[in-house]
């Protein structure tokens, strides 16, 4: 059974268990996120990508040579003896077989260089992730821990995502001071701020919602106060303009009487 089929079967078992047993605890790990945030993996992956680009270029060049030979043979065939045609066709067949062998060597599905070298990049990290998730599962009493790319799921609650704690532990294992510590020790040092129970999470959500509501009300009060101030200033300006106009009219009337 391959890895994907294995996780699929586990997912089906977990789903059926959820119906039968509401207390089932499930978590998941995003392996792609972990790989993309491991610096040594990104560097090695880029180096492998450069090799792949070179292999693909070599394949294109070999294929272009074969195509050129075929076209040349087709154009010259009327001028060649049957034996010469046969010899050239056999040469082309040899080149085609060599090209197919080269493709298998580089990109073969079972033991090609690409599959082999990529597995060498991923396997050490996957092994560490496996060991860490084993400890997390035991410590936090999870019934199942899946990888998000393998489990047959169309929805996953973020509160069940333990990816960041796994990544944090992986990076700590790379530090000289933490390298010789047991995973269980590192886990205890990180659990205090990485994991929160459901009640604490909901409390924090309510507090955030309350704070947002307060901020909105405060902003609305400030807006109303500013509007009222602007209205008062406008009325005062209009009053001053009216007084000034009356003074001018009064002065003009007094002048005309003289």
TrEMBL record:
<protein>
    <submittedName>
        <fullName>OmpH family outer membrane protein</fullName>
    </submittedName>
</protein>
<dbReference type="InterPro" id="IPR005632">
    <property type="entry name" value="Chaperone_Skp"/>
</dbReference>
<feature type="signal peptide">
    <location>
        <begin position="1"/>
        <end position="20"/>
    </location>
</feature>
<keyword id="KW-0732">Signal</keyword>
<dbReference type="GO" id="GO:0005829">
    <property type="term" value="C:cytosol"/>
</dbReference>
<dbReference type="GO" id="GO:0051082">
    <property type="term" value="F:unfolded protein binding"/>
</dbReference>
<dbReference type="InterPro" id="IPR024930">
    <property type="entry name" value="Skp_dom_sf"/>
</dbReference>
<comment type="similarity">
    <text>Belongs to the Skp family.</text>
</comment>
<feature type="coiled-coil region">
    <location>
        <begin position="38"/>
        <end position="112"/>
    </location>
</feature>
<dbReference type="GO" id="GO:0050821">
    <property type="term" value="P:protein stabilization"/>
</dbReference>
<feature type="compositionally biased region" description="Basic and acidic residues">
    <location>
        <begin position="204"/>
        <end position="246"/>
    </location>
</feature>
<dbReference type="Pfam" id="PF03938">
    <property type="entry name" value="OmpH"/>
</dbReference>
<feature type="region of interest" description="Disordered">
    <location>
        <begin position="204"/>
        <end position="258"/>
    </location>
</feature>
<keyword id="KW-0175">Coiled coil</keyword>
